[in-house]
Amino acid sequence: MISKGGNAVAEHIIELVDISKTYDSTTEVLKTINLYIRKNEFLTLLGPSGCGKTTTLRIIGGFEQPTTGKVLFEGKDITSLPPYKRRVNTVFQKYALFSHLNVEENIAFGLKIKKVDKDTIKEKVRSALKLVNLEGYEKRSVDSLSGGQQQRIAIARALVNEPDVLLLDEPLGALDLKLRQDMQVELKRMQKQLGITFIYVTHDQEEALTMSDTIVVMKDGIIQQIGTPEDIYNEPKNAFVADFIGESNILSGIMKQDFLVEFCNHKFDCVDKGFEINEPVDVVIRPEDIEIFSNDSGKLEGIVESITFKGVHYEMIIKTDSFSFMAHNTNMYPQNSKVTIDVAPENIHIMKKAVN
């Protein structure tokens, strides 16, 4: 089982064991996925379109059957259990609210199916609306609500059933940037307040970094890396993860020996070890970690090719003889000016060469 950071003794609520999924006997969407999810964890499946993250979520929810492998819930095999018998609820990107029902009726729909008594339903609906900050909206038409409000109603409808796990399939995708950022904070608040497990699917790196306890990065049906947001950003396992999570300069290098790497025809101290002498490697440097000097203090000489103001910093492309670096700096260096650049040892990340 692939391990994750954090408290190793925390109880696993869901385990995916050797899960694969193939369509039409030829299209392999998932390739032997092994993953555990802890109770009360906010876990995000992150990756580009077609990487298998939504298929993984649907298998957990019971909407898809794996071709091989099994799904365990608190140690019990639920692979063949239908969705309505699983202790999970799902919030989809398209909220699927019933336009002919008001807010209260939409939220209460699942409870009525379960034949919960009217007084209990009323109290649960009131509590759910309070949780999503929409108290007093019971009699509103769902068509009169904004996109963000409709999204909250969809979440309330799922939460009112008191699931042990809430599955969220890109639920913020239809919202504008400001509302999406506000809802990221709200979702994290709700998850902490409720103390239940959230499994979230997105292709948005900012969403994943903002909300998650654990991020699972996927590509082509394979898990590339599992870790905390800090681990994923600061210590990417391969070039794909480094490039997908934020901006990165990725260039080829040679590991001369432990703690010494060569790239752009210069040797740099680093903090990595365990590579073969003169082993080809990928070198990852974040734009914010590049030091820029207007004198000869840096190791590499370059020319500022372009400048873009980003609000909190300037983004500059600095062309050297061997590589064009993207650099972020609060100081602006004029276009076409000559500069030198350097990188501190702890900000140089060395990885094995990517293999397809």
Please give a structural write-up.
With 356 residues, this protein is of the alpha+beta class. The protein folds into two domains: 12-239, P-loop containing nucleotide triphosphate hydrolases (Rossmann fold), CATH 3.40.50.300; 248-352, OB fold (Dihydrolipoamide Acetyltransferase, E2P). 24% of the residues lie in helices and 35% in strands. The strands form four sheets. A six-stranded mixed beta sheet has the order 6-7-8-3-9-10, sandwiched between helices. Strands 13-12-11-14-20 form a five-stranded antiparallel beta sheet. α2 packs across α3 (118-131), α2 runs parallel beside α4 (147-159) and α3 (118-131) packs across α4 (147-159). The longest helix is centred in the middle third of the chain and has 18 residues, at 177-194. The two termini are 22 Å apart. Mean pLDDT is 91; it is low at 1-9.
Comma- or semicolon-separated keywords:
356 residues; OB fold (Dihydrolipoamide Acetyltransferase, E2P); 2 domains; five-stranded antiparallel sheet; elongated; alpha+beta; 20 strands; Rossmann fold
